[in-house]
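Lecture 7 notes: from sequence to structure.

We start with a single chain of 90 residues. Read the sequence below before looking at the structure.
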Amino acid sequence: MLSLQETTFLYIPNNAVGAIIGTKGTHIRNIIRFSGASVKIAPLEQEKPQDQQTERKVTIVGSPESQWKVMLQVVTVLFPHSEVYLGRAL
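Now the structure, written as tokens:
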């Protein structure tokens, strides 16, 4: 079975990057292992003042299913107390 590799981009707030990466990169490694996708978080741009950069680009490469797994994990980190699960409001 051929698995299509696609690229998707997410933009996350700068203040959430640490939570996505986790201590010593443990959380991002678990996301990659769970999903099977490649996940890269862009560094801050050197030529722009840091206070003008409010978000970071996340590049996700993998099958559509693996991309959804990454996005679900990221949303879970960004909104841990949300009452929205898999697109349904409770």
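The chain has one domain: 6-89. Keep this in mind for problem set 3.
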